[in-house]
Amino acid sequence: MSSRTIKKLLLSLIVVGIIGSFTARGTYALLTGEDRNPNSQLASGTLLMDNSVYGGAQQPCSSKTASLNVNTGCDSLFTSGLLYPIPSASQPPLPATTTYVYGDITIKNSGTLPATLDIYMPSCDGTHQTSGYPGGVSWTAINPCGTGVVGGTSLDFFIQEYTGGLPAPDGSGVAAASCIWPAQGSACTLVDNSLGDFSAQHHDNTHYLSLGSIAAGASRYFRIAVAEPSDAANGLQGQMATFAIYWHME
Amino acid sequence: MKNLLKLKLNASLIDSAASHSAPAASSEAQRALPTTTSTQRKHRPDVGLKQRMLALLAIELAATLAAIAATGTIHSTIFRIAIAGLALTVAALVAIEALAFHRRARVVAAPAVTPYPIPTPAPAAAAAAVPPRKVLNKTRIGLLFVMAIGFAAYFGGSGTFAGFTAETQNPNDALASGTLLLKDHVTADCNSQAGESNNNVNANCDVALAFGSSSPGQEPGVYVGTSTIVLTNTGSLPASKLYLWAPYSNAVYSGSTINPGGTVGPLSVYASGHGPAGVEGPMAAGDLITVTSGPYSQSFCVGAGGVAAGATSIPIAASCTVASVTYTNTATITISAGATIQDGSSDTTAANTNCYDVQTTNFGWNPTTNNPLCSSALLYVQETTGGKNYCWFGSGHDSATGMCDAPISAKQTSATPTIGPSQTYTLTAGLTGNVKAGDELDFSENGNVVACTANANTYMNATSLATSSAACTVKSGTNSGFDANVVITDKSTLNTLASDYPSSTDSISAFDINRNYGLKKELTPVTANGTTGVSSVDLASSGSRTFVVGVFIPGPAASQNQLQALKSTFGLVWHIDQ
């Protein structure tokens, strides 16, 4: 073998070595052992709410059917006619519907996770009625969503929870579990300005009213009522309150 | 091997001597004849040639047979004895012939004693008729004798003839390879050597974290759970390296054997019972996958359309070129069921990680694009070997305390109606996470929540928690009515984890992207809490190391509804090198 050939071979080996040093990035251990733990799994649960207004069109109105689990299109609790002041601060059930309007609603946790249930009123707007508002009045209009500080008392509002289902229109049939708002005993009474007070205190998701826990699959039953106080001033005449109620689970 | 070399040298000498000396001897003998006629001189060379050829053949045969015997190829005593006899016979004949030659030479050299007259040719004619004399000289004869002695010594004289001898022997020298085997224990032993791929890789160890049930499923901000994995080097050799890495998208081949030369069509993979359930992670068209079966590996390209995570068949491209190298679908190795398949092109973005999401319920607003649960859920790996802690991955990794930010959910063993400062609460089970001194501990039961301050660093597996002397505060309800059902959480850790969202470093997706094979983490020995360093041995033979692995969905203030009804699936790889 000529020296020239030997030189070629040696140079080739050097080149191979250099290439190997740059391109071979693997591990060269001769002995290895390896175990793998596949199929680790983490599943998120669900937190879904069904909102069913008694007599409403949506039975139920589900959070999951709307974008990102927030359904803004559920039924209204009620659309009242004209209200008259209640004869007295009597306790429900009240007699004439002309002095009292309410809606019954069932809230169900239809997800797999337990949750806490919150409620708040993001808006309560008092305006003149578009029709029937008397002209040339001498009194100052009272905001029906007000807190009674200016002009006189505002609307009464309560949230009554029942156990095991919704009551009959007169409130019979199921037990009144607790009066959520205004915070009272098991049965609610009508309290002046309680609509405005609720809106002022619980108007967003950081100022909500906690209704406590609701287990996965469980339902809770509420009656929400509004009345014109017995001592309503004339300033409440021809006024209209428009509000929304948000139910929130987390 | 030394004797053989000598013998070959002798054989060469035989050949050399025979080819030159035999004809010389013959011509000497021819020249020693007292009288000769021209006819006789014409025939004698023919006869001599035959004799020489026969002699050469005999010597050559003896030498060849001796060489064969010397190699030890034929293990027959009879054969060896026969060859020895043949060799000695040849040597004896050579010796006899040599002696005879010398006698004839002396006769030729002493004409005075010739008993009968010899016609003497004219000097010039004699010089023309008789070829130049070639003498079988002493050197050649000596070489022939040495050759003969060599034969005899080889076949007959295997012993030593010295009067005094000394000898030592080192018999039974042996060389055995060691073993490097890894045992992984979660709920059962899983041994690397039992892997179906027949290359000391077991892809079918226990599921480490089994929180995949969608009912009820996990929720953000709430402790999920952990798993303890014990790794043991069950081999005889120390492992210089112990690694943890995130697997690439991978699967285990389930089809029939493909032999070299065969066409590799769609690769069917196991759906259960042999490792990953289907393909663990997506594989895109054109991705380079490596199939490993026994000691051999071969790369292929994923075919058109790629394959979604969880699928049970991987399309293979007939041919493709990656980085100037062409890969075809013709097997060059034997691919058997159990072979592992890995997609080295994966684990680069959240969309192609080994961790993948599927919907348990499709709400329309919980898509799996870019695997949002994998990207949100936090993973942590903390070593607890011998009570020495080190956070290898996750929030708090490499901290001086050795603590990961690992949430706790504990209960006390006995009723303590009122929660207060400077108290020690005995736990019903070892602590599932870590508590740092000064952390806020919340005691919650039936809507009552009391917050106290942790007295000291308390590590995983601790059996008690102590509050500091700082006053506790009532966060909700009253400080009363607490019993053994009180739940103790570390609010400070939960807040830390809530702020780690979305995490580019601590999520499961981040683990896949930042700690895949190419970026694997060596788990050097831990010498004290939060202390580790370079060592020549990461896992000694028969040594064990213990790791706690946990997952957690952080609970930031922002809504995470898009994470509902999703399930993440992922794997872990533990690896040792010699």
Work out the count of structural domains of chain A. Answer: 1
What is the general shape of chain B?
A: elongated
Reported for the largest beta sheet of chain B, the result is: 6 strands, antiparallel
Structural class of chain B: alpha+beta
Please give the largest β-sheet of chain A: 6 strands, antiparallel
The average pLDDT value of chain A, as a whole number, equals 83
Spatial strand arrangement across the major sheet of chain B: 2-1-5-28-16-17
Quantity of strands of chain B, as a count = 29
Helical percentage of chain A: 10-25%
Assign the structural class of chain A, choosing from mainly alpha, mainly beta, alpha/beta, alpha+beta, or little secondary structure: mainly beta
Terminus-to-terminus distance of chain B: 36 Å
Binned strand content of chain B:
15-25%
Instruction: Quote the average pLDDT of chain B.
Output: 84
Q: Which blocks of ≥5 consecutive residues of chain A have pLDDT under 50?
A: 16-27
Largest interface: A-B, 34 and 81 residues
Kindly report how far apart the N and C termini of chain A lie. 85 Å
Output the strand order for the largest sheet of chain A: 3-2-4-9-6-7
Number of helices of chain B: 8
Indicate how many domains the architecture of chain B comprises.
Answer: 4
Whole-angstrom Rg of chain B? 45 Å
Strand fraction of chain A equals 25-35%
Show the helix and strand layout:
The complex is a heterodimer of chains A (250) and B (578).
Chain A (H helix, E strand, L loop, with lengths): L2 H21 L8 E12 L5 E5 L7 E2 L37 E10 L5 E14 L27 E8 L11 E7 L12 H8 L7 E6 L4 E9 L11 E11 L1
Antiparallel strand pairs in A: 2-3, 2-4, 4-9, 5-8, 5-10, 6-7, 6-9
Chain B lengths: L1 H31 L5 H34 L5 H33 L13 H7 L8 H19 L25 E4 L3 E3 L9 E2 L7 E2 L13 E9 L7 E5 L3 E4 L14 E2 L19 E6 L2 E6 L11 E2 L4 E4 L2 E4 L11 E4 L12 E4 L12 H5 L1 E6 L6 E4 L16 E2 L12 E3 L13 E6 L2 E6 L10 E3 L6 E4 L10 E4 H8 L9 H7 L6 E2 L3 E3 L2 E2 L11 E9 L13 E12 L1
Helix pairs in contact in B: 1-2, 1-3, 1-5, 2-3, 3-5
